[in-house]
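Feature request, filed as a ticket because there's no other form

It would be nice if the structure record came with a short human-readable summary line next to the tokens. Right now we just get the raw output. Example of a typical job, pasted below so the devs can see what we mean:
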Amino acid sequence: MERLCICVLSDYLRLLRIWRLRYEPESPGEDFHDRFVEACRMTAYVDHLLDCLLSSIPEVRRDAVTALAEGGEIYRLQTYVERKKKEEEIIVQRKYPERHDRCA
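Raw output as currently delivered:
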């Protein structure tokens, strides 16, 4: 379970970092994209959870796993991250079709 938590949170953190760059407003008056807002709100929290999971203190790791496993939260996050990664892939394919033509 600990390994699953680390993998899911690492994937989510990677996605949040992409969103923070990709959806950052280009001008001061521009509205914030929902994904940019999520990235700003969640990055520090997810980073903290990963720090706990990678801690050398067994109790800290155990408490983090317990919190994530409680009520199936880690499985919901895993499903969410997988869905959002697929959505991002589609967005990139539409925006840069020539990149994907060369790989086919």
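Something like this underneath would help us a lot:
DSSP finds five helices and no strands in the chain.
The mean pLDDT is 92.
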